[in-house]
């Protein structure tokens, strides 16, 4: 074996005050597979430079803009220049930067969503088809070992024929008007930065992607409604939909950012004709399995744990009982991406190989479009008689 | 204080092999407020008599039919004859027996649903308005102390203005074709006995009633879909709906009997602009309260427990940590009903006073009708683009 | 089958303001097996009469003293007089009343502990050996179905050879000086009424009895320490011990009434060389089973639930997911006792047959003596008398 | 602010097949504060080199022995040579390497325990007092934010005067004879490598250290017993002790590696005269707080979460609901250590400043000695030396 070469990574976005940039840095740092060699962290020069300093990035490779970064890094010798661009900007820049980076010859690992509209993401897909550059999308929850275990249970028939899926993603942090003072809230509720949907774009897409992944199935139709609860808020902060899948399952998808007091309570429940399963993001190291006619069982993450599929085991670092969490989940995506960059695997952008790619991005866009259309369309609300309420 | 006189009760239905009759007997026995003095437990003479024997009911007051029972009991001296009829038959008999019993001068405590159609239940309501006879409906979950506590939290403003409600009632016991061999499954899936809906009539009404009770609000519209998963099953076994309330909350209602492996997992979550709450029937002695800006709190049932409203305390028998359950919840309904029968309170059939009454029955009927209508109507299903799935 | 005859029961103690009397009344009422026909509820005439009134007991059979009750009931015709005396007084009266009742020809069902000293309980045992009267002891936790399931798992070898047992019973209600104003606290901390130990006598005996029952083994030695945390409190309110069993298991027993904020958190964990199990009284319908090399499993109480032994199923009334609790557990003891009284089974006082009897009483006394001796001594391991285990 | 310079770290131990070395690498990688510049990973040359290759360590700085590494690194220019030695060998080498490293001018971050005997650890302490080199000890659990929160609750009086502490650390992985085939089990049960205690040295010290840390108190006496359950196993695999603290609290400490089916279930419960708290390592992001007279509360880890002390917040990276785990806890220790190395804080080896140091090491040794003595003796209470508490 040759000596492992760390993958050289540059970051766009993620200056001080941002949230997800720091998460990505923890994630790619965890397993020692990456060197952060350059960045364009903020349009604000002071923020940009102090972020770079705090991260140990050299000033010579701290760039005033992402355009500048792509330009100058391209000019560096191959063994020195960055290999991967990590994009952690607001949503509206995801596609423009991805396109430019790929055209400049870099691999891209992008925070979700892939873009702010189906059209631009399709264009990105076309571009990817014409190159050998890699594209990864941070559907972080798909990095959890027990999400892979849940999918394995479905795929291997432990639940039988799937009938029902319930996925919910309640948060409470936008229960009041946060956008006047919270930077994260500000851009996430601004259509020019976040795209056409707020809550559904931000977290509904996670719920949707999780459901399709665990089910190994496509959601083909939905009947939903979006809501906005705060005066002057421009985008939805809450919504729900009845859903149907290609293979014939039905269910419900809920996403909300006004569920007061909830933290980040993504959950999925799946039921087939032989059993059910349940997974909660906030207790991510367990999958509850309920086979008909037996006591229910709890499969637990960790090295050496019984009953796990290879895909789950490969995403664990330590023995059971030593909890791994959200950062480890994202680190699993970055690790697989590093392997693909080094050519350790046959990962390509058109083939999901542990890392969600452009197809996941397209699915998210399709979901947002369908939710917006359904919510805007004529309702088929049925009146419940007021009898008994007088 | 005069010596407590036990309320004399007669039961219709509840022979050997039935489920809910035994539950009612446990419930009215628990607090020593009732004497079971007579019964028409089964149309099958052998079952009827052996049930009576096992319960210690005298043969002379064991009747071959409910018609016979109403008739003969009416003829007994006032101090001897039954005061309350407890109806635990299949649904289609609920109204006919209730009407006959009330006309014969008896109070009625009826297993839910009130009937099999809105029309007949309205007629029953009209009848009740014309008498002073009492009518109680076994919406058992409304007997739980912590359901009252949850309602109190909503009413007292601890959650602020209510925005969202999510109520779900997953069971798994009808995941396969049970109706060929399970008596309970058989009549519950037979439209001539159960009414026009299976799952929604059986447990959806519980979810609906719980939501309206906790919210102290009326669900005014819904958009839902019903499903039947077993070949030859004649009624729905699963469904879900988006819902809206009179006061402006929105949410989701789910009820299913094909959630493989689930026992009886009724749950409700409510969110307002100041906080949220959560209650699970399978762990009924806790209400989780999530006020914005504070650690979440768990209110616990039991005598001497902090933070409980009077309505909750009055429904507890023992100090916290000694779990009370489902039978105690139903016993709370029977207790309140006994007080009303004795005139200890101003309970009347037209005034919910701890015991759900005919109005709850009407609400359930209205819900079933709306679900059936919504499910049968033209859908507004929005297609999710297949993009990314190829 | 002959018509079931309710067992005629008289209660001593349990006047207004008492706790455990009401619990017993709920418990024997639940299944309709008993009629409360008489009582001596309180030495205070007013309390005695108002209690009788509220329970519907006739004045003619409401007695001023327990001596009077035994006397007068004995004189009644056999088909009328009480059959069972339920004793729910403070501890110091348990033996005197039990002895007198048995001599007068009544069966006895007594709140635990059996007495306040090993000597008097031995004398009671001798008396029981000379009669055919039945004696039941309210070790309520041994009425839980899942405690029987846990015992079954041990007995059937699902855990292999047992190595470890940890039992803990933390309560918080005596964290402050309650005895000045709380009647329950007052007598429980008074040596003349409660006996030589407070916490260990009151709840330590439950933990001890639970451990011996689940293990089907005897605790033979302990090394413990008792503490009293409140000024002027005369008895222990807290303690712990290392323990050893006859079959060679070791472990820890903890009981405390100063664990601030704890309700009634009795728990047991057992580990063998093939697996472990865990049961919590506050969530009594589950037993966690952890077989080596498999995902852990949760066995759930209820009719129709998978994996339960007969002894567990026989103690459930309703299907899984409808929680049964503490009152149901005690009701299970009363039910088995009623069967024995009627001669439905071969239950005798010298043979544990679903209801803990005098041997359980002796074990509790032996435990208290050993704890007091160990705590007072300099010796490390104090032998627990094998009395009651032969 | 100057550009952050990564701390240059060398690792001793942690070759392929080891467990804790990889954990340390995840931990120091997570926050990007360290560069792994050299290592002596294994005495086996093949393992050593392949480990180095897989980690990207240059062959020129991959050393055949730790002696060689200290020697050759000392000779490198100051800006190039390692600054910190991370020691992840079996226990018997901890002190020899620490001493040599400090004498060679390096800072030391050592896996626990500090050594295999109190004497050698005292000598190490003496050495540290004579230098300005830093010494950190990987008591990983003390890096969890909610452990700091628990300590804060105690220190700030939220529990009042502390009465009781119960700490337990059950594992199940040594329930059978693993030492014949499992490298981790092999050295941990070999006295020449692990020291005089197995389970107590390995995990009992964690339980002990956690209790002292949360209580901010010293355990002064214990009365305990050790057990060995597997034939031919040379060290204890299980034990428990009654404990007393300097400030007057009492309680129980349990540690076992034969609790079949348990993963890594370290828990602590503390009770004072105003309330109690509870923390579980396997659900590390919550502390349950039970104030007398109020519903119990759950404090949750994460940025922006209510009620957290600064020490807890400073150890969180992401908002509540995104679980952080065991690796993050150890990373918190490495981060604080990096700050101290850079002189960002006034951390010194003699002053606990976020990172457990040599005093924690001494406490662990004192605990092991007391447990061994108590278990071997006939005396009831064995004094725990106050060494390290001044």
From TrEMBL, chains A, B, C, D:
Residues 8-137 form the Gfo/Idh/MocA-like oxidoreductase N-terminal domain. It comes from Alteromonas stellipolaris. Keywords: Signal. Gene3D superfamilies: Dihydrodipicolinate Reductase, domain 2 (3.30.360.10), NAD(P)-binding Rossmann-like Domain (3.40.50.720). SUPFAM superfamilies: Glyceraldehyde-3-phosphate dehydrogenase-like, C-terminal domain (SSF55347), NAD(P)-binding Rossmann-fold domains (SSF51735). This is Oxidoreductase. Residues 149-278 form the GFO/IDH/MocA-like oxidoreductase domain.
């Amino acid at each position: 074996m040759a000596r492992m070469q760390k993958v050289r990574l540059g970051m766009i976005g993620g200056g001080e005050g941002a949230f997800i940039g720091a998460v990505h840095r923890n994630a790619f740092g965890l397993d020692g597979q990456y060197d952060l060699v350059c960045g364009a962290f903020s349009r604000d020069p002071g923020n940009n430079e102090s972020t770079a300093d705090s991260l140990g990035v050299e000033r010579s490779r701290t760039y005033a803009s992402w355009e500048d970064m792509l330009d100058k890094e391209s000019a560096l010798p191959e063994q020195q220049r960055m290999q991967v661009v990590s994009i952690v900007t607001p949503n509206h820049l995801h596609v423009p930067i991805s396109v430019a980076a790929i055209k400049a010859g870099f691999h891209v690992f992008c925070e979700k969503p892939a873009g702010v509209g189906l059209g631009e993401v399709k264009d990105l897909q076309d571009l990817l088809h014409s190159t050998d550059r890699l594209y990864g999308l941070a559907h972080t929850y798909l990095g959890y070992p027990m999400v892979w275990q849940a999918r394995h249970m479905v795929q291997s028939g432990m639940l039988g024929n799937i009938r029902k899926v319930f996925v919910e993603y309640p948060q409470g942090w936008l229960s009041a008007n946060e956008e006047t003072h919270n930077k994260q809230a500000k851009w996430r509720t601004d259509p020019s930065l976040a795209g056409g949907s707020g809550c559904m774009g931000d977290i509904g897409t996670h719920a949707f992607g999780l459901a399709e992944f665990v089910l190994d199935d496509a959601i083909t139709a939905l009947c939903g409604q979006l809501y906005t609860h705060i005066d002057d808020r421009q985008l939805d902060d809450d919504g729900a939909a009845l859903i149907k899948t290609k293979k014939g399952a039905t269910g419900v998808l809920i996403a909300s950012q006004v569920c007061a007091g909830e933290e980040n309570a993504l959950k999925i429940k799946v039921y087939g004709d032989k059993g059910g399963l349940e997974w909660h993001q906030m207790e991510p190291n367990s999958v509850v399995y309920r086979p008909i006619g037996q006591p229910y069982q709890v499969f637990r993450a960790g090295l050496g744990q019984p009953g796990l599929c290879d895909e789950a085991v490969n995403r664990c670092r330590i023995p059971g009982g030593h909890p791994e969490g959200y950062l480890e989940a994202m680190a699993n995506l970055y690790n697989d991406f590093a392997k693909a960059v080094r050519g350790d695997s046959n990962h390509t952008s058109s083939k999901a190989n542990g890392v969600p790619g452009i197809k996941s991005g397209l699915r998210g866009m399709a979901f947002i479009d369908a939710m917006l259309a359904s919510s805007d369309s004529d309702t088929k609300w049925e009146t419940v008689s007021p009898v008994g309420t007088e």
